[in-house]
Structures are given as C-alpha cells and as structure tokens.
Amino acid sequence: MSVTEEELKLHELVAYFRVHTLADGELECLELLALGFANAEIKRRLKSSTRSVDSAISRVYAKLGIDSKIHDKRVYAARAYLQYVGQLPRPHLKKEETSYGLVL
Q1: What residue segments make up the domains of the chain, in order of their start?
Q2: For residues 30 and 81, is the Cβ–Cβ distance under 8 A?
Q3: Cα–Cα distance between 51 and 43 in angstroms, integer?
Q4: Closest C-alpha to 79, from 96, 98, 94, 60
Q5: Within its chain, how far is the Cα of 66 from the centroid?
Q6: Which phi and psi (to 5°) does residue 72 adopt?
Q7: 3-class DSSP state for residue 79?
C-alpha cells in the first residue's frame, strides 16, 4: 500500500506534536536514533539489552503515530525529534493541502 504525500505530511505533523508524550528513556532512544546511531550502538550507549532498545524504539514509533505504512520509520522519527528540539522547521499543513479537515 502506498502512502500519499498528504498522508506523509500528516504523519509528520502528528509525530511532531506527540514527541512530548515520550518517557525519558524513549526520548533518549529517539535522540540517539535521530543522531543516526544503529540499534546496537544505542544499546551500548544506554547500557541496555537489545530487547529493551528494540522495545523502546517500537514504543516511540507507536506513540509518534508512525505506523507500518511509513516506509522509513527512522527518518520520520528523527525528523520529529529534530523539529521538536528546533533543529528543523516545525511541520505545517495549509488548509488547502489536506482533505482531513485540519485547519492549522
């Protein structure tokens, strides 16, 4: 199933607004993920098990609303974090860009 450009923008916006819902450990995993570290390096830096890191990253995706339709979950999660900390511009949708009835 392919995702439209509009759906990708909506996912990005939702992820940005949900970053603040992450627990401290999840936010730490997201930060390392955004810096480009592989799961094995995240595990080493956090002194955690592979299972714990995989579980935390899965929870991050779920809380950010990044589902299986998104091809590169890591990229969308990283973008949400970088937008959250001000390193990328905040995502936005114009009324005419969405069929979801969002007015932002």
Answers
A1: 5-94
A2: yes
A3: 9
A4: 60
A5: 6
A6: -115, 85
A7: helix
The tokens describing 98, both together, are 């969405």
69, two tokens: 């339709």
pLDDT, tens digit, for every residue of 5-36? 777 777 777 788 888 899 999 999 999 999 99
Alpha helices, DSSP H, located in the chain = 5-18, 24-34, 39-46, 50-64, 73-84
In whole angstroms, how large is the CA radius of gyration of the chain? Answer: 14
Q: What are phi and psi of 17, to 5 degrees?
A: -75, -15
Considering the four listed CATH numbers 1.10.10.10, 3.30.1370.10, 3.40.50.1110, 3.20.20.140, the one that applies to the domain covering 5-94 is 1.10.10.10
pTM (whole model) above 0.90: no
